[in-house]
Amino acid sequence: MATIHDIAQISGYSIGTVSRVINNRADVSEKARKKIEAVIREQGFQPNSSARTLRQSMSSEVYIVVRGIANTFLQSLLEKTQIRIGEHGESASVQFIKEAEDEVAVAAKIMQGIKPKGLVFLGGNTNTFRQTFSVFTVPSVLISADAESLGFDNLSSFSTDDRDAGGCAARALVSKGHRRIGILGGYPGDAEGEQSGNGPSLRIRGAVEELERSGVSFDFARDYEPCPFSAEAGYQAAKRLLSRTPDLTAAFAISDSLAIGAMRAFRDMGLHTPRDISLVGFDGIVPTRYTIPRLATIEQDVELLARRGVDDLLMRISCEGPAVHEKIPYRFVNGESIAQPR
Amino acid sequence: MATIHDIAQISGYSIGTVSRVINNRADVSEKARKKIEAVIREQGFQPNSSARTLRQSMSSEVYIVVRGIANTFLQSLLEKTQIRIGEHGESASVQFIKEAEDEVAVAAKIMQGIKPKGLVFLGGNTNTFRQTFSVFTVPSVLISADAESLGFDNLSSFSTDDRDAGGCAARALVSKGHRRIGILGGYPGDAEGEQSGNGPSLRIRGAVEELERSGVSFDFARDYEPCPFSAEAGYQAAKRLLSRTPDLTAAFAISDSLAIGAMRAFRDMGLHTPRDISLVGFDGIVPTRYTIPRLATIEQDVELLARRGVDDLLMRISCEGPAVHEKIPYRFVNGESIAQPR
DNA sequence: CTGAAAGCGCTTACAG
DNA sequence: CTGAAAGCGCTTACAG
Q1: A91 and B110 in contact by Cβ < 8 A?
Q2: What is the Cα–Cα distance from A7 to A42, expressed in whole angstroms?
Q3: Are B303 and B137 in contact (CB under 8 A)?
Q4: Of all nucleotides in the shown strands, which has a C1' nearest the CA of B45?
Q5: Which nucleotides of D are covered by protein (CB under 7 A)?
Q6: Strands A331-333 and A297-299
Q7: Whose CB has fewer CB within 10 Å in chain A, the N or C terminal residue?
């Protein structure tokens, strides 16, 4: 394995000059640069990233922290994020945090040793950020939840307007004539109007507000069923909800994974979607385009979320500017899972 | 940020002794260990991993290389792999490689700077390993494809017996009475019996062999349609296959993602699964349990693949033993997508 | 059992 | 524009 020392020796220049070439500094003669670059290429030299990190007390990498590895939406967001980072010629490592853990605390522990030059958080609970994010001093970005109210000056955020989009989902059902609508997903606290500090809980709020505006009665105890964000959880929750409240003609599942589980649960209870019960999801994950029937959903613009998030982060890493908070437009996808109530 | 120097100063011992405590060396007095451990805890000290890596010319991390980030099966395998690594008290970083890239070459480039102590490859083409894996000298493991024939003594592998399982999938259709069976997925070369060096192509081989054994005629030009491993690709390929060969009564999609796309394509062509056409997939990904109808599939034991792979790797990192190659049992899941031909 | 010291591969003032 | 040298935070023979 060639080191900078070897390159210096072979090229006939000093280690310092080689280092300047590696780091694209301007104060190197054209001649030296040419020669050294040739040797680097010929030797297949890659600078030792540990030495570099140690010296600069800062890694050359961006770290991506993903909360909840089994979340299809986040997987797709991660994919786009990695691609965008690659397009900038940067590389990133990924750390997955269990959904039950405090992503900020766990990340803090890991990052303490690693010292990334920037952090991307995919998914996450605003409350845990409020409490512990201040340990991070590097430029960071939270994608998919709004961090504006937290006011950290090194944390940007890019997110869907969950509250507004939740209203949109509800409207899609109401406008077809539904008056008995259930909501699936989220944490038990969401029913009491507590802020669980995440986007999904805002979806519920937005939907309920829209129902109220439309004069549709909604009672949390009767029409709402909380559950985690997996298809199986959606399956179980849908069964609970419909057993308790059999007169529902439609449901809003606050994530597509839930919705896919719910649709299957309805079928197992003898109900066909959309004939017997309508359904709308949230996220716009790929599988919704292949379910039978295709799922109506709120499609988040994963591509743009990732692009704006990464671009902003890398810009702040190199130029140091203020954090920004931006809402990325969503889109309602009609699908085939909504019909008029019978 | 406390360094080892601070810990030494506060505890009243030398840097060397602190280092020995950190690394759990035996030659430290009980008294020193207690005192130093207390200071470390009190200061929240984490050794700088770059300094460590630099000095030992070896990172303390395992790296996981995943080929194809959008592959649901690999995502689930990645999840289990990360969990298992965590259970050993180790941490891992993840690098995603584009499906079109040579995962070994790209990984080689990245790892050159990073020097992980071990490598896990999830998914991958045996042929690319054959050509370039020799650049790696650290203990490695390939999970989900068989590397036995390559003979690298630092590369273990754990995989499903794809050929055998492909036969099982075909048998599930034949035993119901199907005689006109199509196969979906894989690379064009697979039709010519070229070895594309991946598990999935072995699934095709196994299935075709089983059909021959059963006296069911199979003609690649007529009954086979290659395509990449996504739902959309499966959707398009299913349409092409069925347009060309409308008398098929059943199909084997060599991955579940393909199968989900194919089922949707059949429906868009007016065919109901399984009434009009039966379908069996491969992998056993979670969504197959929620499709309507539920998908029959070959379920790979993701949990066990990950567990055996990680355990073997970590053992070889600490003890240095020979590479092993192991087949992990699979399971046929009946689902609801297979019926007798009409 | 413990400490002093060399050195891992780099970057960056500093001097010229 | 270039080189010599200090030092980032650690580990590990070496000496005692």
Answers
A1: yes
A2: 10
A3: no
A4: D9
A5: 1-5, 7-13
A6: antiparallel
A7: C
Tell me the shortest Cα–Cα distance from B264 to chain A, in angstroms. 6
Nucleotide whose C1' lies closest to the alpha carbon of residue A16: D3
Residue-wise pLDDT tens digits, B110-137? 776 677 889 999 987 888 888 888 888 8
A36: which nucleotide lies closest, measuring CA to C1'? D2
Which residues of chain B make contact with A286, given a CB cutoff of 8 A?
Answer: 230-232
Could you tell me the sign of the dihedral formed by the alpha carbons of B3, B4, B5, B8, in that order?
positive
Q: CA of B54 and C1' of C6: distance in angstroms? A: 14
Q: Which residue of chain A is at minimal alpha-carbon distance from B273? A: A292
B4-47: CATH topology: 434 Repressor (Amino-terminal Domain) (1.10.260)
Which of A2-16, A86-100, A210-224, B34-48 comes out lowest in average pLDDT?
A86-100
Under 8 Å between Cβ of B148 and B170:
no
pLDDT tens digits, B226-269: 999 999 999 999 999 999 999 999 999 999 999 999 999 999 99
Read off the tokens for A149. Answer: 């109210």
Task: Name which of B34, B36, B2 is nearest B16 in CA terms.
Answer: B36
Question: Quick check: pTM over 0.70?
Answer: yes
Chosen for mutation from B3, B4, B49 (greatest number of chain A CBs closer than 10 Å) is B49
Pairs of CB atoms within 8 A across A/B: 115
Q: What is the DSSP string of A66-91?
A: EE-TT-HHHHHHHHHHHHHHHHTT--
Name every chain B residue with its beta carbon within 8 A of the beta carbon of A91: 95, 110
Contact residues on chain A for B49, CB-CB shorter than 8 A? 50, 113-114
Q: Any idea which residue has 């008029």 for tokens?
A: A340
**Spacing of B60 CA from D9 C1' in Å:** 15
User: What does B178-219 look like in DSSP terms, one character per residue?
Assistant: --SEEEE-B-HHHHTT----SHHHHHHHHHHHHHHHTT----
| B278-318 pLDDT per residue, tens | 999 999 999 999 999 999 999 999 999 999 999 999 999 88
- Other Cβ atoms less than 10 A from the Cβ of A102: the count is 18
Q: How far is the CA of A53 from the C1' of D14 (A)?
A: 29
Nucleotides of chain C in contact with protein CB (under 7 A) are 1-5, 7-13
> In the predicted model, what is the mean pLDDT of residues B137-144?
92
- Residue with tokens 């997987």, as numbered in its chain: A75
- CATH match for B162-299 among 3.40.50.2300, 3.40.50.970, 3.40.50.360, 1.10.357.10: 3.40.50.2300
CA atoms of B119 and B248, how far apart (whole Å) = 44
Which residue in A has a C-alpha nearest to residue B83's C-alpha? Answer: A98
Protein residue at shortest CA distance from C1' of C3? B14
User: Which class does domain A55-160+301-328 fall in?
Assistant: alpha beta
One fold for both B4-47 and B55-160+301-328?
Answer: no
Radius of gyration of chain A (CA): 25
